[in-house]
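Justification of resources, computational component.

The compute hours requested in this renewal are based largely on the per-chain cost of generating structure records like the one below. Each record pairs the submitted sequence with a full structure-token output. That output is archived, and it is also reused by downstream analysis tasks.
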Amino acid sequence: MASRFTGTTAAHGCASDVTSGILAIVPQRLRLGFWYRFVVVVVKPFLRMFTTRDWQGESNIPREGGIIVVANHVSEVDPLMVADYLLHAAHRPPRFLAKKELFRKPPLKWIFEGAQQIPVDRGSGDAARALSAAVEALHRGECIFIYPEGSATRDPALWPMKSRTGAARLALLSGAPVIPIAQWGPQQVLAYKARKPHLLPRTRIRVLAGPPVDLSAYVDKPVTAQLLRDATTTIMRAVADLLAQLRDEPAPQEFYEAEAAMTQATTVQREGA
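The structure output for this chain reads:
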């Protein structure tokens, strides 16, 4: 089983060509469903109008078979950019994990269910059960996308921050390879908590995918909190290293801890009062 985490297999053929051109809205051989195609047709022209693309590493993304894709999170709009990359550069329509509450009321219910996004029961006391729908999707050969950070980074320098362990747990539960992606540029379109986007001049969106993360050291061992934390660090270190290539500067040795920084700021504020 360990070999499943060290690279692609015959069932995970890698992408080699890129669909381009504004008229190539959706690769025709992909079966996306009405709502997925509707979102793509609406969003893609705006991305082409206000951004340019610098896409690299798509050959590292398996063309077939269940895969888990993880990425850094720098803006509330970057899911659009990374989904655009996965769909049109690698021909892998991503299925995002979303809290199950979003599936309860229309119109979000129609869009999320129609686009086959994956509900996650965060209130479940059983972490494995909460990810059961994602495991089933991976076994069907889907591309599951996860932001391990959980939200846009709070690191002042916009490096990845300390992340949650869901992606590592899902990889160990399913045996699916984890593909790291770094993206840089979406934060210039819409900075975190900014009210207005910066649309012109067009922003260059850089996306780089790396080879599958080697998680063989964590296979066939008791799944403890420490093991999940170590596996998560391995995954996010791969993402940070890719981001360092895009930014052409070294990544920090330690991941930013938002909760610790918030606690420290609160303490300083109280002492100052």
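The longest strand covers residues 178-184. Residues 2-272 form a domain with the Glycerol-3-phosphate (1)-acyltransferase fold (CATH 3.40.1130).
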